[in-house]
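During the reporting period the student researcher (J.K.) took over the structure-prediction task from the postdoctoral fellow and processed the backlog of single-chain submissions. One of the processed entries is reproduced below for the supervisory committee.
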Amino acid sequence: MKKTIILLFMFVLPLQAQELKIASWNIAWLGSHKFNTRTADDYSLLAKYAKQLDADVITPQKVN
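J.K. obtained the following structure tokens:
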């Protein structure tokens, strides 16, 4: 993990300092399981939210 973060900052960030927007997304209940009652419209709305984040890096949370 530590090496990944170091590589991220070495290769992703330009030499001149700029704003970097990092977001995290809790996707624990997003996948396919018996408690998932999402519809196609729900997934479309989630995709819209992801685009609105306009983040440079999006990291998932709680992936089992």
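The committee noted the following: Helices lie at 2-11, 40-53.
J.K. will present the remaining backlog at the next meeting.
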